[in-house]
């Protein structure tokens, strides 16, 4: 029997309360100065409520058109809807477009002639440069829209990937296509390609170094890495969304450090970090709703669409907010997973279509999944595998001749099982979430405390209160 798509009475009640609260906050913002931050929060409540219901309602329709997958870590391997990230992305994009008037309306009206608001007196320098208020200057609108364009592009490409099941070697470049609109607008609108040189290197390169077109290569690399690395740290219930939520919340924490009262008002990086908050709050709303359905035992899968979309949200805020290095610091588990996976990604070690941990139907626990060596590895690779085995970085099985016949798949999830033994799926997901949180908090702390070791100043002057 197909699972019911109806919302329970408690769910309906809770969602209405959330929607009512969000409408009240937005309505209230019209009386005052239009508080974009509060409205963004209200939009994220609305995003949660609408995504939560839509995912429940749309499941069967997705399955009917073939957007479904088998949950491989369950005894009966049930088929459930896939690509639910598309629902998140569509709700998110529509709300981000509806949000535009809140941070931009007054700037656009007041700074352009004939805006119908002529009694607003603005000084020339304010019209030229934007005002130093909690609203950003209207020239930020180009960045904002380019971010949305890139997110729209990646969503379309992600849905295409989920429909067509594109091969890995081709799909790694999909995010580069998605990032294209953002990079083009960056080129014509902002165009800064300078970086601050760390103190020890300043003797050779000076204080500021122009990376030129290499800066675009770097930004494209960030935009390729973020989505793909989330898609690679995947395969057990909830892990894709949960890791994205941790990254988003940590980014939000970092953003708030640049706002009053945590830093003296007004801080020069404040606008960039407000920009980031406006992108992150609704993302957290749609992702939390998805997690409710995707956490163990999953009722839906997120699809590559969600992984790409989430990664691109991070790339957009990191690149357009000019804190891509901080962003990358929050991807330590993903970076490790990527580097650890390289031998399989580059086919030095065979790479099966799926590398997710293997479900043992007798114990109900997840165990290491392996790649089988039909032809024994070359002596060099065998020596490397034996060494990694001794370092407890890979599990191997040998035959009576001492040839390697099996080695564990090189993913962080498998390594965790290798270190801590077989475990239940939700415990493994929770472990990864905790790891992500601890690494991220440490990285943020180190980023602000240790910046002084390599840079003349941390860009948050008041951090020393910690
Ligand atoms: C990536 C990984 C692949 C991993 C897969 C799992 C690389 C190079 N590729 O491939 O090793 O197996 O993600 O998502 O690292 N699934 C579950 N339970 C879950 C989530 C997914 O069983 O909680 C299965 C379902 O059958 C689902 C499928 O994984 O249909 C989705 O895989 P897909 O996203 O297409 O894999 P890739 O992203 O290509
Ligand atoms: Mg995937």
TrEMBL record:
Domain of life here? Eukaryota
The annotated pathway is:
Protein modification; protein glycosylation
Quote the catalytic activity from the record. Answer: a di-trans,poly-cis-dolichyl phosphate + UDP-N-acetyl-alpha-D-glucosamine = an N-acetyl-alpha-D-glucosaminyl-diphospho-di-trans,poly-cis-dolichol + UMP
What residue ranges are annotated as transmembrane? 12-31, 37-59, 80-102, 141-160, 172-192, 204-226, 233-253, 273-296, 308-332, 428-446
Task: Give the InterPro entries listed for this entry.
Answer: Glycosyl_transferase_4, GPT
How does this protein lie in the membrane?
Multi-pass membrane protein
Required co-factor(s) are:
Mg(2+)
Keyword check for Cytoplasm, yes or no. no
Q: Which GO terms describe its biological process?
A: aerobic respiration; dolichol-linked oligosaccharide biosynthetic process
**Has the keyword Transferase been applied to this entry?**
yes
Task: Output the Gene Ontology terms for molecular function.
Answer: glycosyltransferase activity; metal ion binding; UDP-N-acetylglucosamine-dolichyl-phosphate N-acetylglucosaminephosphotransferase activity
Q: What is its EC number?
A: 2.7.8.15
Where is this protein localized, as stated in its record?
Endoplasmic reticulum membrane
Major location category of this protein: endoplasmic reticulum
Cellular component, GO annotation:
UDP-N-acetylglucosamine transferase complex
Q: Which family does it belong to?
A: Belongs to the glycosyltransferase 4 family.
Name under which the protein is recorded:
UDP-N-acetylglucosamine--dolichyl-phosphate N-acetylglucosaminephosphotransferase
State the organism of origin: Talaromyces stipitatus (strain ATCC 10500 / CBS 375.48 / QM 6759 / NRRL 1006) (Penicillium stipitatum)
């Amino acid at each position: 029997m197909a699972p019911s798509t109806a919302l329970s009475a408690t769910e309906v009640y809770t969602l209405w309360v959330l929607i009512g609260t969000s409408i009240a906050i937005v309505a209230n913002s019209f009386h005052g100065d239009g508080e974009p931050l509060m409205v963004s929060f209200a939009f994220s409540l609305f995003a949660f409520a609408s995504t939560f219901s839509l995912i429940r309602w749309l499941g069967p329709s997705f399955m009917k058109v073939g957007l479904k997958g088998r949950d491989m870590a369950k005894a009966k391997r049930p088929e459930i809807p896939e690509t639910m990230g598309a629902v998140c992305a569509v709700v998110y994009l529509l709300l981000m477009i509806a949000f535009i008037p809140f941070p931009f309306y007054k700037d656009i009206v007041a700074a352009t002639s004939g805006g119908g608001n002529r009694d607003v007196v603005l000084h020339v320098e304010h019209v030229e440069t934007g005002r130093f208020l909690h609203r950003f200057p209207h020239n930020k609108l180009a960045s904002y829209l380019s971010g949305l364009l890139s997110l729209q592009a990646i969503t379309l490409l992600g849905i295409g990937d989920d429909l067509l099941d594109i091969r890995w070697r081709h799909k790694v470049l999909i995010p580069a296509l998605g990032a294209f609109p953002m990079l083009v607008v960056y080129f014509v609108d902002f165009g800064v390609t300078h970086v601050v040189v760390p103190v020890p290197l300043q003797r050779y390169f000076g204080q500021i170094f122009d990376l030129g077109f290499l800066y675009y290569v770097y930004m494209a690399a960030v935009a390729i890495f973020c989505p793909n690395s989330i898609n690679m740290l995947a395969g057990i219930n909830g892990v894709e969304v949960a890791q994205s939520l941790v990254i988003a919340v940590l980014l939000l924490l970092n953003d708030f450090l640049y706002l009053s009262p945590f830093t003296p008002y007004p801080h020069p990086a404040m606008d960039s970090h407000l920009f980031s908050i406006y992108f992150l709050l609704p993302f957290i709303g749609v992702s939390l709703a998805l997690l409710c359905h995707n956490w163990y035992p999953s009722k839906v899968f997120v699809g590559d669409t969600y992984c790409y979309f989430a990664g691109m949200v991070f790339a957009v805020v990191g690149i357009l907010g000019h804190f891509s290095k901080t962003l990358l610091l929050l991807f330590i588990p993903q970076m490790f997973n990527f580097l650890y996976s390289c031998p399989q990604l580059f086919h030095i070690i065979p790479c099966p279509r799926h590398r997710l941990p293997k479900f043992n139907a007798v114990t109900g626990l997840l165990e290491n999944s392996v790649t089988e060596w039909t032809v024994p590895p070359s002596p060099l690779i065998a020596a490397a595998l034996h060494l990694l085995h001794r370092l407890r970085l890979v599990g191997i099985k040998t035959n009576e001749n001492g040839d390697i016949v099996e080695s564990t798949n090189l993913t962080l999830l498998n390594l965790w099982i290798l270190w801590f033994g077989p475990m239940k799926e939700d415990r493994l997901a929770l472990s990864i979430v905790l790891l992500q949180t601890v690494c991220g908090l440490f990285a943020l702390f180190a980023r602000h405390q240790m910046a002084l070791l390599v840079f003349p100043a941390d860009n948050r002057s008041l951090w020393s209160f910690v």
